[in-house]
Amino acid sequence: MEDQKLLTPEEVIQATKKQLHTTVPVQLPKSMDISVDHHLTAETSSRSNEYTIQFIEMNEPVPINNDALKNEEANVAVLRGMKYNSMSTAAKQINYQDHSDSEGEAVDLGFGIKGYKDAGAGSQFIGWNEGRWSLAMRALTEQGDDLEAEAKKVVQYLEKHTLPVPHEAGMVMLDISKTGGEHVQRVAWQENNAVYEIETPKGYMEALKVAVSIQQNH
Description:
This protein is α+β, with helices and mostly antiparallel strands and 218 residues long.
């Protein structure tokens, strides 16, 4: 385990690529944020047409795919790549929505971007589009104006940081509802006949940072 201590999170991410045996072009983030005094490791699985990388932070250094990780949950992020038979099949995996078709209340999110707000079943939602991306955020009804404020933060962040350019579409699904449990933040996009997914139990900004880091890594 001594060798693992020498690996930075960036080096761990790159090392996961060597563990994958797949025909799917692998897309990896350049970096990931982990807790202070923790160590990043990963558990990988792959087949010809798909791969999954579960990134895990541990108190002690643990080598990638070590048996000690079998019962650990991916507390940093899960990255997947899946190849389909056609671009049209891949496109069906992306829940892209043109939010301007929504009947929700129009909201100015800044930078010329209009969001559409809706509510139901104790939740409130806001959705908007940026380029080839469809973005949606959920909060509890009692969170009031939190939803709009957080959506504006996302728009502001994406003005300075670029998501991967999907071919043809991508979706971001963020959950800020305060119910005490963990919420999975999800980013997915199509690249021809492949689909890539990022899921994290951390906050929505962590999901965006990982996705943006993939773009920078090209």
